[in-house]
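The authors assume throughout that readers already know how a fold can be written as discrete tokens. The format is easy to grasp once an entry is in front of the reader. For illustration, here is how one protein appears when written out as sequence plus structure tokens:
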Amino acid sequence: QEVICPYCEVSSYRVHSIYQREIQDLPLQDKQTGLLLAVRKIFCDNPECSHKTFSERFVLLLRMRKRQSVSLKKY
């Protein structure tokens, strides 16, 4: 699956690695909940780009560099 580089906006699909992020989400029945996301790190194939790799972004779920879901922030 292709992903757009956030720095140069060129599409790429070569996976560098995969890592997990733990995200806090809305509580369920007064219990703290979390999400484990498998995030792909992707090679940028644009030789003109200032970054060689970048991570997938989940803009509907998370704000950049945050550890809480968007819905929890609104809660």
Remarks:
- The chain has a mean pLDDT of 83.
- The longest helix spans residues 70-74.
- DSSP finds one helix and five strands in the chain.
- Residues 17 and 41 are 5 Å apart (CA to CA).
